[in-house]
Amino acid sequence: MTSERPRRSELGVVVALSVLVGAATGLLVAGLHAAIVSGLWDHIERDAWWVVLLPLAGLIISSVALARTRERSTETTESYVNVFHEPSGRMDLASVPLRLLASVATIGLGGSMGLEGPSIYVGAAAGDAVDRSATHLLSDRKALLVAGAAAGIAAIFKAPVTGVVFALEVPYRDDLARRALIPAIFASVSSYVVFVAIAGTKPIFPIVGEPLRLVDLATAVVAGLVCGIGARIFTRSIDVIGAFARRLPFWARPVVAGVGVGGIGLASLAAFHAPFALGPGYDAIAAAASGRLGVDLLLALF
What is the pTM of this model? Predict the structure, then answer.
C-alpha cells in the first residue's frame, strides 16, 4: 500500500507538469508560427525577382546568431534525439533563444525548411526546463523531455494524436517511450488547445472529401514506396551536403548555401511563377493537393 501511494502521487505530479509543458509549448510554437508565417513569409511579394535573395540574408542572420552559441549547431530535432540518448544529457537552454532566432530568420526569409524541427526543439527545451525544476519529484527525468517534443508536433500539425505517436516512435527506445505515453498524451492535448486558441483550427492543407476506392489503396502502396525511396535519397543528399559544408569555413557556409538556395528559387519562379521551392512549403503542398500541379511540375518541385 505504501509503495502504491507514492506511484499515484508521482503520476499526479507528472500529469500536472505535462499539462504545463504542453501549454508552454503551444504558446511558444504559436509565437514561432506567427513570426515565421504570419509575420514574415506571408508578407513577402512572392512573384518579385528579389525574393530569391532573401534566403541569403536569412542564412547570414542565422549564422551570426549561431556563432554566439557554444555548439554552432543548426540541429533541432537531432538535438532532442541526442539528448534523449545520452544518460546525463540536457538541452542547452542558454542557446535556445539564439537557435530559435536562427530558425525564424532561415525559414521566414525563404529557407526551404519546415517548422517541425524548431517546434520539436522548443518543446523539448520546455520539457527539460520544467524537469530541472522538479527533478526531486520525478523518477524518470526524460519523460517530460519526450512529452515536450510530442507537444511541439501536436501544436504545429494541429494533431495531438500525431504528437503522441511521434513521442513513442522517434526516440527508438521502447522502454522509456512506453513510460512517456501518459505525459505525452496530456502534453499533446494541452499544447494543441493552446495553439489552436491562438492560431485557429483551420486545417493546414485543404482537404477534399472523396469516396475511397480499391484503386486508391493500391495507389497508396505505390506512393508509399516512392516516398520512402525519395525520402532516403533526400536524407542521403543532406548527409553528403552536410559533410561538404563542414569542410567550409563557418563564415562561408551561409554564402554558398544562400547562392544555392537562391538558384533553386530562380528555377522555381521560372517553373511555377511562384517561389514554391522556398519557405515552409505550405503553398506548394496546397497547390499539389488541389490538383494545380501536374506530374511534371511535381517532379520538378522535388
Answer: 0.85
